[in-house]
TrEMBL record:
<dbReference type="InterPro" id="IPR043502">
    <property type="entry name" value="DNA/RNA_pol_sf"/>
</dbReference>
<keyword id="KW-0496">Mitochondrion</keyword>
<protein>
    <recommendedName>
        <fullName>Reverse transcriptase domain-containing protein</fullName>
    </recommendedName>
</protein>
<dbReference type="GO" id="GO:0005739">
    <property type="term" value="C:mitochondrion"/>
</dbReference>
Length: 181
């Protein structure tokens, strides 16, 4: 069956096809949602934060920071391709990114992931689905747009004090040691 061996299913039988392998992995990677999810309740509303127009420099900074040969998504175009054709396509890509941010919509083809199972290191038995982990291969331009948005959100959070001062997780120049002090 390729790189993934026959897997042992929950009932103790072995998978006999690629389809059964995929179903077994999907069941482990994406367990069912709970029947009910509690409402968080009302949240304090803040004034909206205005974001400046997207610039070519922001997009280029994120594109050049992308690893050139990182695995691409369904389009098959790694970052090196976008870097090589950039002088010819940069204004078109910027226009797509700007439209995406203005409309609040990511192009569908950038939202499709190719999910690849990888072995978790140090496991004794790779015939059980939980010995594998999924990675999602996404389109390079979608990843670049996500990086631009993440950088903008991080900047806004720090500039406008959108998180409490005692929130340390996933913030630049913050550490677990600082949280303990």
């Amino acid at each position: 069956f390729g790189k993934v061996p026959q897997l042992v299913k929950a009932d103790g039988t072995a998978t006999t096809s690629h389809k059964e392998q995929a179903e077994e992995l999907l069941a482990k990677f994406f367990p069912p949602l709970p029947d009910t999810i509690e409402d968080e309740g009302p949240r304090q509303q803040r004034a909206p934060v205005t974001m400046p127009d997207l610039t070519l420099e922001e997009v280029e900074r994120q594109l050049w920071a992308t690893k050139s040969w990182k695995a691409p998504g369904e389009d098959g175009l790694p970052a090196i391709v976008w870097k090589q054709v950039w002088p010819s396509v940069k204004h078109d890509v910027l226009a797509i990114f700007q439209a995406s941010l203005e409309e609040g919509v990511i192009p569908d083809q950038w939202r499709h992931a190719r999910i690849i199972p990888l072995k978790k290191p140090g496991k004794d038995d790779y015939t059980i689905a939980k010995a594998w982990r999924p990675i999602s291969l996404l389109a390079t331009l979608g990843k670049v747009l996500e990086s631009v948005v993440a950088e903008r959100i991080s900047h806004a959070v720090e500039t406008y004090g959108l998180l409490p001062t005692n929130h340390f997780g996933a913030r630049k120049q913050r550490s677990a040691e600082q949280a303990l002090l």
